[in-house]
Amino acid sequence: MNDLVGRVAVVTGTSPNIGAGIALELGAAGATVVCVDRDPVMAGHVAADIVARGGQALPLSCDATDERAVGDLLDTVRSQVGLPAILVNGVVQYNVKGIREMSLSQWRSQLAVMLDGTFLFTRRVVNDLVAVGRPGSVITLLSTAAHQGEPNNIGYCTAKGGLLNYTRSLAVELAPLGIRCNSLTPTATDVGEWAARAREWGVPGPGEDLVAELRLAAAQVPTGRLPSPSDYGRAAVFLASDAALAITGIDLRVDSGSTALYWRRKPGEDRREGLTT
Fold this sequence. Notes:
Elements: E1 8-12, H1 18-28, E2 32-37, H2 40-52, E3 56-61, H3 67-80, E4 84-89, H4 104-132, E5 136-141, H5 154-174, E6 179-185, H6 192-201, H7 208-220, H8 229-240, E7 251-253, E8 269-270, E9 275-276
Parallel strand pairs: 1-2, 1-4, 2-3, 4-5, 5-6, 6-7
Antiparallel strand pairs: 8-9
Helix pairs in contact: 1-2, 1-8, 3-4, 4-5
């Protein structure tokens, strides 16, 4: 049921972290994966890794906010590997600022990448599927920041929160046309796979401060471990596959229980064991 052989999947945003993890799992499930990133080096590395594992991949580069560029890229996809039936919207821009520090131009730039880029890729892929009467699956990557307020990260939280309801709207509009639309919520992510890929690719990986921060985060989530990029990838394979034919309009949270955790805790309480110390 999780077999994606014969399907073309477009993944936007292919960093060595989450995007690569998802693209690699889609490739392992048999999909031909189109790896899209503004940085052609990143797209090329992910595609090469998929091919090295026996899969099929095509690296392409594009500015996701440029309507013509998105159209040209998807024309290339269709001519070279076929009509995409799976779209994973992972395009993102980070600019960790609060409302007092962020300029209007920075706000517009961040939202343009995350909202406009997702809109442009989705609209084109959906219209192409509808034109030939084919079913499909759209998966949009969110964040725990879509569900919880994070201070001093106003643009990211706003965009991710918007994409949550964007997914619901898509789902009810496109369900009669056979196109399923779901979101996937990652959280703070274990750095092991990211660091290993970054070393292999010769690109910057997680810094020491981030590693220390994520080590603390792992101790705080209910499961006691943070998800890896491949955990997200396997969830994306499920949502894209026939195993999820009756699933649309949901948000699949692969977050080690972090959004289920009540914010208050008693002094000395161990979150994982539910015991007092």
